[in-house]
């Protein structure tokens, strides 16, 4: 005797037990689940968010851009945890002054610290951001260049005076090399000879 094989659910989903048709369930737009709403919201947020700026390795001494007509520099206020008033006084005598907290853009305000006198200054660790007018800075730079030139001239005169008459000449080979290992690793900049 051969048995007739009943249609299985796998082969025909419309046929149920006892040959009753099984109703098919369709999805309707209103019957979406919670997960699809979350997906919709995240897609909406992604289209409305501003593009993220590319990541850049920050330095320990990032500073806001200088104000118009000013030059800024970090001035040390402590050495190994001890106050260094001589360094601050020297900088203040030259003309450097702490940058006022009210001139700092809002995105940089988190770095402003209160000093003992209550004035807000822009500081990172033991350094204070100070500023100086560009005109004074150019005068200081010109003065330092003149002092360096005079020192080099003095060395040349001393060498000429120390030469023994009839002795071997002193040969001077002036070369200057500047290396900035923090900025560019392995790059060496050499200044051309003056000859």
Report on the structure:
There is one protein chain. The chain starts with 33 loop residues before the first helix and ends in a 5-residue tail after the last strand. Helix content is 28%, strand content 16%. The mean pLDDT is 75. It has helices at residues 34-48, 85-94, 134-162; strands at residues 70-76, 78-79, 82-83, 97-98, 112-114, 120-124, 127-133, 177-178, 189-190. The protein has a domain at 70-133. Strands 1, 4, 5, 6 and 7 form a five-stranded antiparallel sheet that branches. A hairpin with a 2-residue loop joins strand 2 and strand 3 (82-83). The chain is of the alpha+beta class.
Helical element count? 3
From the structure provided, what is the oligomeric state, counting identical versus distinct chains? Answer: single chain
Q: What Rg is obtained from the alpha carbons, in whole angstroms? A: 38 Å
- Poorly predicted segments: none
Count the E strands.
9
Overall structural class, as computed from helix and strand content, comes to alpha+beta
The global form is elongated
Helix content: 25-40%
Sketch the topology as an H/E string, one letter per element: HEEEHEEEEHEE
> CA-to-CA gap between the ends?
116 Å
Q: How much of the residues is beta strand, in percent? A: 15-25%
Quote the average pLDDT.
75
Largest sheet: 5 strands, antiparallel
Task: Itemize the secondary structure elements and their pairings.
Blueprint: H1 34-48, E1 70-76, E2 78-79, E3 82-83, H2 85-94, E4 97-98, E5 112-114, E6 120-124, E7 127-133, H3 134-162, E8 177-178, E9 189-190
Antiparallel strand pairs: 1-7, 2-3, 4-7, 5-6, 6-7, 8-9
